[in-house]
Amino acid sequence: MQHVRRSPEEIAANRARYEEHQRKGLEFAPKALPAPSPLPAPPVDAVRVVHQEVIPGGWYWSTRIKRGETLRIAQQQGFSTVTLVAWNAAETSERLNLPDTVKMQWTTALSKGRVIFSDMGRVMFSVIEDSSGAHDCLMGGSTATSNLTKYGEGTRNTRDNLVLLATKAGLERRDIPAALSLFAPVRVDQDGKFQWRPELRHEGDYIELRAEMEIIVGLSNCPHPLDPNPDYRPNPVTVTRIAATEPCVDDLCRTATAEAVRGFENNALAAI
Amino acid sequence: MTTFIQTASSRTLANVAQDHAIAAEAPFSTIIRKGQTLRIEDSYGQQAIDTLFYNAEDHSERYSSQDTMREHGAAYITTGTRIVSNEGRVMLTMSADSCGRHDTSAGACSCESNTVRFGHGTKYLHACRDNFVLEVSKHGMSKRDVVPNINFFMNVPIEPSGEMTIVDGISAPGDYVELKAEMDVLLVISNCPQINNPCNGFDPTPIRVLVWDGEA
Q1: Nearest CA in chain B to A140
Q2: Ranges of each domain in chain A
Q3: pLDDT tens-digit readout, A162-173
Q4: B82 vs A: CB within 8 A
Q5: A 139-168: CB under 8 A from B
Q6: Inter-chain CB proximity A262 and B120 less than 8 Å
Q7: Considering the domain boundaries, does residue B45 fall inside one?
Q8: What is the rounded distance in angstroms from the CA atom of residue B25 to the CA atom of residue B127?
Q9: Is 0.90 exceeded by the ipTM?
Q10: pLDDT digit string (tens) for A96-149?
Q11: How many domains are there within chain B?
């Protein structure tokens, strides 16, 4: 099939525009982000606790959260990886989109000040606190097969947990998006090979995600497929729903990057 | 554009089972039967080819980037990579790769994500997710079924720090990947129309898809 090339001028103009976005995304944005949240995690004022759930090792939990509420996920009972999926509660065809989340923010390393996007260019969560910064946006969670290979028979896995929680929310297995593994210190080497980097973990790590729309969130508390521990011993994890607050005008997650600003403009437009 | 590059004596233009010319920016779909070999050719070079696979008999089983990356142990896919479904089954195996760099982390472009990445002025540009939605709708599916895809010939280096960016593709005219089907699959392609980043050299071009029957 024949092709008539675009003009060199048009190509050069589009390239220049891209390189400007790229320079801001790779150089300026990381400088605008704060250090990880200090440890230990500060206590949550009891009057602000909407609900607290302790998810046993190997299990799952799902809840609806209101816009402005915060979900704190804390490693109070030892290390565990918590895998997260999410849907817009009002329109579940809109859901967590990790490829968009990582490419739009020029990084696979989520940390305090970053945001988590849906497939519709809107912000689902703001990462308002995070002591860790060691999360896996690429590989997802365990499956029956990956657990069988690693531990033998009889262990619970993330894929089945996600099927269960999605189904109980009235969704189907085809609605399960690529999943975000919190507290999974996964990075790539220069060749793109995945590495487990335990030195990125800290005792008592926690993350706080502020919901930026009404959300159905699902969590699975199972060891990550790359976790080198040969014994299946996931610890319980404590999840706290914290009452809604209205972010201030200079809110970190709303202002840290040009991409987040435009994402929140899309949220505002959808809320009219 | 380059002429046909032969990779096996049994696979020639004379005995091809399917030969499709796909226009720049266009969607495409076809069925690949178990045992057949699929070739996706980047005819002009530097063209991202957004690709999804579904089990032809049960579309709720489909390509899973996360299962594929977990089984492969790396973020980039190449010869030998098994293309794995959300049910953990091998759908196809990559049997040849003349390029050496393909992405499955960065997903498909969309009108909505363009607004976030490149400004609200880029909303009304044709995008891969619209291609995918139109094409899967022909097979009874919807946006819910458009999952994270493979971007053949798209160059998205990820640094050990997590830093990630789209850079110029390294594919030359005629570069190809070949995949052997391990089950009957529905192939869905968006020949990427993006002009706001280098994934298509800022100039989306036509591609070619060929399918051969398995060796007897």
Answers
A1: B66
A2: 8-270
A3: 999 999 999 999
A4: no
A5: 139-141, 143-146, 159
A6: yes
A7: yes
A8: 8
A9: yes
A10: 999 999 999 999 999 999 999 999 999 999 999 999 999 999 999 999 999 999
A11: 1
